[in-house]
């Protein structure tokens, strides 16, 4: 008599949990920025609640800081414009994801759109056909962002020395760029933007970032061939 | 007034995020914009990286060299298809060790 051994099926990790797990390194990367942003916001004369509220209402670190700084500097309308210029890239993220999420319910698209920011966009691009993967990571990131900025705003004394940890963000940028630069076109665009970002970093209101991004896109768009970057 | 500014910026930001997701059927991007959507992410990350490097460079040579070493290690590991977490962990360790060496070197310099 022969017996056939059938191994039980290995349960697959749900997509939302896989997304949450994939978000962990990106959460590590945004932690120093969140803590330092929280510290900076907490010192603004606008009131801690108003400063922290930007984390959920605007949910974009560089725009949050630019908005509050410009407002404290006495420029209300300029503050709004600066925040929107910095966040203009979100329009392109929205355009890029729209065809993929077209068939999702309206409420789902509103939630997914609200959570759309650089790290969550990375996840959305990683597995473009798995909406639950995106939402799992995006929700965890949102919660984490509220916690780390809140810690900086409300409990500045508990924020640790960020000297080594502050390297996490640029290192994460490098790791993400390595995956995002796939051909000569994206390499040209990214190289131009990096040089522009460094050269124009001192422009007021993070305007240098916007100019560097526009220059990068312009440089990349004149490259026609899609020659692969060798690994 | 502060709340008004925050709410206006929040509403504008949400409109940017939702524009094509909610009204995609009625909005149509010009053809040239669809050709550059794949460049937006690398360009945004690269610009942030450049600005960050500039900030570190003005902080001191030791910190800058340590970060550069960490970036090289991170990039090499990520390029080999390893996880981002592993690449960042190795990069952070490199930054830490190189930073210690830089401090020791500076202390030994007359």
UniProtKB/TrEMBL annotation, chain A:
Subcellular location: Cell membrane
Pfam families documented for this protein: AzlC
Membrane topology designation: Multi-pass membrane protein
InterPro entries: Brnchd-chn_aa_trnsp_permease (IPR011606)
Keyword match Cytoplasm: no
Residue intervals passing through the bilayer: 20-42, 63-86, 133-158, 164-181, 193-223
Protein biosynthesis among keywords: no
Source organism superkingdom: Bacteria
Keywords (A to Z) from UniProt: Cell membrane, Membrane, Transmembrane, Transmembrane helix, Transport
UniProt similarity note: Belongs to the AzlC family.
PANTHER family for this protein: INNER MEMBRANE PROTEIN YGAZ
Protein name as catalogued: AzlC family ABC transporter permease
Organism of provenance: Paractinoplanes pyxinae
From TrEMBL, chain B:
Pfam families hit by this protein: AzlD
UniProt cross-references to InterPro entries, sorted A to Z: Brnchd-chn_aa_trnsp_AzlD (IPR008407)
Alphabetic keyword roster: Membrane, Transmembrane, Transmembrane helix
Transmembrane segments annotated in the record for this chain: 40-73, 85-107
The name this protein goes by in its record: AzlD domain-containing protein
Species whose genome carries this gene: Paractinoplanes pyxinae
């Amino acid at each position: 008599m022969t017996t056939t051994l059938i191994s039980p099926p290995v349960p697959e990790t749900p997509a939302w949990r896989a997304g949450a797990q994939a978000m962990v390194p990106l959460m590590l990367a945004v932690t120093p920025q969140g803590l330092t942003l929280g510290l900076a916001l907490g010192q603004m004369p606008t009131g801690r609640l108003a400063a922290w509220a930007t984390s959920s209402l605007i949910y974009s670190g560089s725009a949050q800081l630019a908005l509050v700084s410009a407002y404290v500097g006495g420029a209300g309308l300029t503050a709004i414009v600066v925040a929107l210029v910095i966040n203009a890239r979100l329009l392109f993220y929205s355009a890029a994801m729209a065809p993929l999420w077209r068939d999702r319910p309206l409420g789902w698209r509103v939630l997914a759109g609200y959570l759309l920011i650089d790290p969550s966009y990375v996840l959305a691009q990683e597995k473009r056909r798995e909406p639950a993967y995106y939402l799992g990571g995006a929700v965890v990131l949102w919660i984490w962002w509220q916690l780390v900025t809140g810690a900086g705003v409300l409990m500045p004394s508990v924020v640790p020395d960020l000297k080594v940890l502050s390297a996490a963000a640029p290192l994460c940028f490098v790791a993400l760029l390595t995956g995002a630069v796939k051909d000569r076109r994206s390499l040209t665009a990214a190289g131009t933007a990096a040089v522009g970002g460094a050269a124009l970093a001192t422009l007021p209101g993070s305007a240098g970032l916007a100019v560097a991004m526009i220059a990068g896109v312009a440089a990349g768009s004149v490259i026609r061939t899609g020659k692969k970057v060798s690994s | 007034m502060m709340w008004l500014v925050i709410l206006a910026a929040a509403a504008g930001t949400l409109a940017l995020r939702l524009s094509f997701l909610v009204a995609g059927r009625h909005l149509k991007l010009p053809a040239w914009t669809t050709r550059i959507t794949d460049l937006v992410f690398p360009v945004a990350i690269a610009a942030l990286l450049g600005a960050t490097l500039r900030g570190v460079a003005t902080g001191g040579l030791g910190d800058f060299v340590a970060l550069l070493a960490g970036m090289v290690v991170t990039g090499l590991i990520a390029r080999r298809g390893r996880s981002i977490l592993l690449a960042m962990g190795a990069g952070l360790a490199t930054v830490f060790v190189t930073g210690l060496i830089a401090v020791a070197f500076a202390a030994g310099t007359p």
